């Protein structure tokens, strides 16, 4: 038996699978996010441990024999978060999360040094880990002086499970401290950022064993102390493992809290000027590129909160088929934006509202704005030479045929919808555990899901949406001037 743990932004998902990768049970446990100031996003790492304990309790009650036969655990998690520990492994302050933009000034200063893009292969985005530590150094110097170890969120969970300081290369590639091509920490970048190599965890590949269970953890749930914990991956890399996306040209679009357009790459070919992310994959000797928007379904969730409805109710208003763009333009920059703008300070807007517009028109505008932002990502990926002829759609937003058809039309590519089942980051983490335990080839374990149906782009509406996209593109520079 194998366990995948995905430490997300709003909750943890645990998936128990057998040796064939078949899902036997799952448990979801929520926890809060704190926003103490504008642009801040923090979490108490104790919430991550408590959620994992609840998930293991639930699996132990529902499937005691299967959990007792556990052989390995894989980890996935939200990327870029800064979890700061002292010499006794005590947490020094709330973890600063991926969607926190307070370190925009520090990120810009680092990005002004050509070495960061040359070595890491990426722009230094405000949400990355290195500028967060630079912010702490300036604003919380006493805490910075006590930092003995910096862990990414899922790697704090690993510390609790195993007692080891370790991280995988896919997650660590999003720190701005790593030589992404060499798959190793860069002493040059660490030095420029005022950090030391001894403050970094040991690096392992995604399917490589990083340690075994601590006695206390094993005893509480009746597990063997020999249960292995493998490196795992950042959430998008692990999701790619969950859907079998690791060959050149494979790709998926994820409509989750954030939006992702990801393409697997056989080699390391960064293009930081496009604001495309180039990271190590969880699969050894493999990389991937992705465009990221900071708010996808979060935009619909926000609108639902403002209108006193539920996201599903708003989605139902627009139906299942697109019939041409609306007259309202929505810019989905509720938390700033990454690809292609790298702009932490830009904020969202509605343009073209009229007195007769209601919930349906606002919902259509929000969905179109997110889809236009993903087309921005597609254009950025194409500028790197990446080709995506066919995509798989995952994430909660992919339940809307309207949204998927809209994205397919804007990208000019068919989008496959997988059959119902588990195929996200938690499954990807479990698959990495299988590979790490058995030594099986990733291609044997990380197969693509069966396709339930394919949504084709609407050629009859492509021109109309392209015209609306051109309007959307023209709004960003105008909005930037006044924000």
TrEMBL record:
Q: What does this protein do?
A: Catalyzes the phosphorylation of D-xylulose to D-xylulose 5-phosphate.
Q: Can the keyword Iron be found in this entry's annotation? A: no
Q: What class of enzyme is it?
A: transferase
The protein's matches in SUPFAM superfamilies, at most eight in alphabetical order, are given as: Actin-like ATPase domain
EC nos: 2.7.1.17
Q: Which family does it belong to?
A: Belongs to the FGGY kinase family.
- The entry's substrate-binding residues are 79-80
Could you tell me what reaction this enzyme catalyses? D-xylulose + ATP = D-xylulose 5-phosphate + ADP + H(+)
Q: Per the database record, which ranges form the Carbohydrate kinase FGGY C-terminal domain?
A: 252-435
Protein's recorded name: Xylulose kinase
Show the NCBIfam families listed in the entry: XylB
PROSITE patterns, A to Z: FGGY_KINASES_2 (PS00445)
């Amino acid at each position: 038996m194998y366990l995948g743990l995905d430490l997300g932004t709003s909750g943890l998902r645990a998936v128990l699978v057998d040796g064939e990768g078949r899902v036997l049970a799952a448990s979801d446990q929520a926890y809060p996010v704190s926003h103490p100031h504008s642009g801040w996003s923090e979490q108490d790492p104790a919430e991550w441990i408590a959620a994992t304990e609840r998930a293991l309790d639930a699996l132990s009650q529902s499937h005691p024999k299967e959990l007792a036969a556990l052989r390995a655990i894989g980890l996935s998690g939200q990327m870029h978060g800064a979890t700061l520990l002292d010499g006794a492994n005590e947490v020094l302050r709330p973890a600063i999360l991926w969607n926190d933009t307070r370190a925009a000034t520090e990120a810009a200063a680092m990005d002004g040094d050509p070495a960061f893009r040359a070595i890491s292969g990426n722009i230094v985005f405000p949400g990355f880990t290195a500028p967060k530590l630079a912010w702490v150094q300036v604003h919380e110097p006493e805490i910075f002086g006590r930092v003995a170890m910096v862990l990414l969120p899922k790697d704090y969970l690993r510390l609790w499970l195993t007692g080891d300081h370790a991280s995988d290369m896919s997650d660590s590639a999003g720190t701005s401290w790593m030589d992404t091509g060499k798959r190793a920490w860069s002493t040059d970048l660490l030095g420029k950022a005022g950090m030391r190599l001894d403050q970094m965890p040991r690096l392992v590949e995604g399917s490589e064993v990083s340690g075994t269970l601590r006695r206390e953890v094993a005893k509480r749930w009746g597990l063997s102390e020999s249960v292995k914990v493998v490196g795992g991956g950042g959430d998008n890399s692990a999701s790619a493992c969950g859907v079998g996306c690791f060959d050149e040209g494979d790709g998926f679009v994820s409509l989750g809290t954030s939006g992702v357009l990801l393409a697997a790459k056989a080699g390391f070919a960064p293009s930081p000027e496009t604001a495309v992310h180039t990271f190590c994959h969880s699969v050894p000797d493999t990389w991937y590129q992705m465009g990221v928007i900071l708010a996808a379904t979060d935009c619909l969730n926000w609108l639902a909160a403002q209108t006193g409805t539920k996201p599903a109710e708003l989605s139902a208003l627009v139906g299942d088929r697109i019939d041409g763009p609306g007259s309202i333009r929505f810019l989905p920059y509720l938390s700033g934006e990454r690809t292609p703008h790298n702009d932490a300070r830009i904020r969202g807007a509605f343009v073209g509202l009229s007195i007769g517009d209601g919930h349906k028109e606002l919902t259509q505008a929000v969905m179109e704005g997110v889809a236009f932002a993903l087309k921005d990502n597609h254009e950025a990926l194409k500028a790197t030479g990446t080709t995506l002829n066919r995509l798989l759609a995952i994430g909660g937003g992919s339940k809307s045929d309207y949204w998927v058809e809209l994205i397919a039309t804007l990208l000019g590519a068919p989008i496959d919808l997988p059959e119902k089942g588990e195929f996200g980051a938690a499954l990807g983490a479990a698959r990495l555990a299988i590979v790490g335990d058995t030594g099986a080839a990733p291609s044997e374990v990380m197969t693509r899901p069966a396709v339930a149906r394919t949504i084709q782009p609407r050629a009859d509406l492509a021109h109309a949406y392209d015209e609306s996209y051109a309007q959307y593109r023209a709004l960003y520079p105008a909005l930037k001037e006044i924000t």
